[in-house]
Structure formats: C-alpha cells, structure tokens
Design brief:
By secondary structure, the chain is α/β, with parallel strands linked by helices. It contains ten helices and 14 strands. The chain has a single domain, classed as 4-Layer Sandwich (Metallo-beta-lactamase, Chain A). The structure holds zinc ion.
C-alpha cells in the first residue's frame, strides 16, 4: 500500500497546496480520495496517468474536493481509447445527477463528446492512439454512498462513515480502507465526532483535516464542523492512530514557526508519528525509518 498526498490545501488558492486529494495504490488498483482543483496535476507530477486510475471516492461535494472530477473522467476516457475499464466512482448524492449533467448528451460536455465521437478529425486521433471505432461515450460507473456502506475490492474493503461538517446542505463522509498491507483512513472534512473516531480506530495512517489553531474558531458551529489542531491530537491518541497526517491546512498554521508550534503542541497529547502534510509527500504504512546517512 502506498499513500501519496495530492492536495493538502483548502479552497483558498495556493501554488504550494492544491485542494484536497489523496492517492492510494494497492496491487493493480489506483484509488483517488477526493479530487479538488490541482490534484490531477499533482497526480501527473507523481508519475501516474489518468488511465491508471481505477477508483474515485468523494467524501462530500464541496468544490475543493471534487472540481477535478470532470478532468479525471474525460482524460481517463480520452487517453484510454476504449481499452481501460470505466472508472468506478463512489460519492454522496446527488453525484449521479451531477454525473449526468456533466456527461449526458444534453450535459455540459455533450457538444465536446459529440465532436470527439463523430467528427472525422477526432476519429483519426482515436485511431492513431490505437482505438477501434465506433467510439463509445465515457460511462463512469457511479454509485451513491451512505453511512455504513462497505465496498469490496480485489484485496481490500472500504467502509463509509458519516462525519460532521456542513450538514444538512451536504452529506459528509470519511473512509476506512482495509487491506492486508495496512489500514488507511481519510477524514474527509469533519470536526471532532464519534464518526471519525470510529473510522480511525487502530489505523496505520489517518490523513485528516487540520483546519485551524485550536482556540481561534469564530463560532461554536465552526468548531463543530472543522478540526482544530488539538482536537486532532486528541482524536489521534484516543483512536490509537499510528501515523497522523496533518492536511487541509490553512495559511493560519502554514507559517514558519507556526508549523513547529502545532507539531510541538500536538505531541503533548498524541504519542504516535506526526506528519505535517505537504503535496506529493508519500506516507509510510509503518513507522518512518531513518535513511542511510549521506
Ligand atoms: Zn474542504
């Protein structure tokens, strides 16, 4: 199992931190957990192409978690020339409707897809890439998820759990991925809640929202639906998380000296391995081991 951070930022534009996205590779499966703006670009920087992606899991439908979805689907289809399996996509309602609105004949990309599947020029390109006409439209296999759903893969299973963020306007979920190689948990966006604690219990890696400095929340509602750094430390300790990844980072804590303060304060409560997440960082499933001194 390999976990790569594709985006450790927020909706706030940043060249250093793309919006939310995580890539997990197990065997022949390449899974993308959320695909906020910039995450597709980071995946390419990690040396992975869209045709290698097999699964996309969306935690909630805030744009900083799903804006690159259309890019993943269109490029997977265009470069795959009918030779790679359709993407399997899981996310909360109304994902099925959004998918139709994007890719149906009368959808956002309908005119583009008509041209690419019917125009002679595009069919030439399709043949050059090794495709055999007639050309089918993209047809991502969308499944809407709910609390408690379990998705079974070849050698892994994924559990969906409700977390607390911006209900009732959006359904909000976290994910627990179990495989013989380890357990990866992604918080989605959440405040401290029983849902994320249950998902995270005993996991090898938890990649979590760490949105603000505890004590600076503008309201109680904000603190209920977003994770502060000390609440995250408490969660990591209580759930006995082995490797805790600070992500969904705002400029409030992404400052010289502040990053170190956050780590220092969290370490007074949390006794596992702490990672201040950066885009393209790869997180070890076991404890980090010192490389050879060079
Ligand atoms: Zn977010």
């Amino acid at each position: 199992m390999e976990v790569t951070l594709l985006g450790t930022g927020t909706p706030t534009p940043s060249l250093k931190r793309m919006s939310s996205g995580y890539m997990v590779r197990i065997g022949d499966d390449t899974m993308i957990f959320d695909c906020g703006p910039g995450t597709y670009h980071r995946m390419m920087q990690a040396g992975v192409s869209a045709t290698e992606v097999t699964h996309i899991f969306l935690s909630h439908l805030h744009y900083d978690h799903c804006l690159d979805y259309q890019r993943f689907v269109l490029t997977h289809w265009d470069q795959g020339v009918g030779k790679v399996p359709e993407l399997k996509v899981y996310g909360p309602a109304p994902l099925a409707r959004i998918n139709q609105q994007l890719f149906d004949r009368d959808g956002v990309w309908g005119p583009d897809l008509s041209a690419r599947t019917e125009n002679e020029l595009s069919i030439d390109v399709y043949r050059q890439r090794g495709g055999f006409p007639p050309r089918a439209w993209p047809d991502p296999q969308v499944t809407e998820i709910e609390n408690g759903k379990v998705i079974e893969g070849r050698n892994w299973s994924l559990k969906v759990g409700s977390v607390v963020h911006v209900q009732p306007q959006l359904y909000c979920f976290g994910f627990r991925l179990e495989s013989p190689e380890g357990v990866f948990v992604y918080s989605g966006d959440t405040g401290p809640c029983a849902g994320i604690e249950k998902l995270a219990t005993g996991c090898d890696i938890l990649a979590s929202m760490c949105h603000y400095l505890t004590g600076t929340a503008p309201s109680e509602g904000f603190a209920a639906g977003c994770m502060g750094h000390m609440e995250l430390a408490e969660l990591g300790e209580k759930a006995e998380v082995q490797n805790l990844v600070i992500s969904h980072v705002t400029t409030q804590i992404d400052q010289p000296g502040m990053r170190e303060r956050v780590l220092r304060e969290m370490a007074t409560i949390y006794s596992g391995n702490l990672f201040f997440g950066e885009d393209l960082m790869t997180i070890p499933v076991g404890a980090p081991s010192p490389p050879i001194l060079d």
